[in-house]
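User: Second chain of the day. Same drill as before.
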Amino acid sequence: MTLRVLLADDQALLRGAFRLLLESTDDITVVGEAGDGREAVRLTRALRPDVVVMDVRMPGTDGLAATTEICADPELRATRVLILTTYETDENVARALRAGAAGFIGKGIGAEELADAVRTVAEGETLLSPAATRSLVARFLAVPAGAPPQDAGRLDVLTPREREMVALVATGLSNQEIAERMVLSPFTVRAHVQRAMTKLDARDRAQLVVIAYRTGLARVAPEDGAGQPSS
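Assistant: Same format as last time:
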């Protein structure tokens, strides 16, 4: 299946470069380009791409506002937003993830990495750029030390095994890595994760990460800033 991508960036030269990179693959096609957030929302509704590669800083309606609008539209639930930014620890990126963006990448990404990022997001997989992601989560998404978790009761719908899976997803582990750690099959892990996403009304694994930290299911380890499942 060919993945359909919409590019949203105010720099036409950069959009053209990304188009060339993506369309050099056999399984990705660029169906449209937007120069600002308002146009990105309009084209997303018209074209229904699988993935929107969205710059954060654009004139007029920026990428953050556009991401919020796209992710809040139930008719666009199948579309994933991949944030593209120069500033990988920008608070705006954290806000975009809260709004439902599937992940983020830096503008210095290479051709193969960009294509892999699009494929990963399209499959509903976890956040990208793991090191920057953990720093981002630590700064903006985690419950502060000593503060009560936010909406912890939201997790009551999960079974103990599903809670365990969500906590492991929050550390950035893939289904394969979780399976190896838990001595389970990747299929079983995927089934648990998908059930948790359905119960928590999460669009994808990125939102599971946000929920895990904001409810206190996963916490930030002070020694390295990486998320760890709470005990």
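DSSP finds ten helices and seven strands in the chain.

User: Great, on to the next one.
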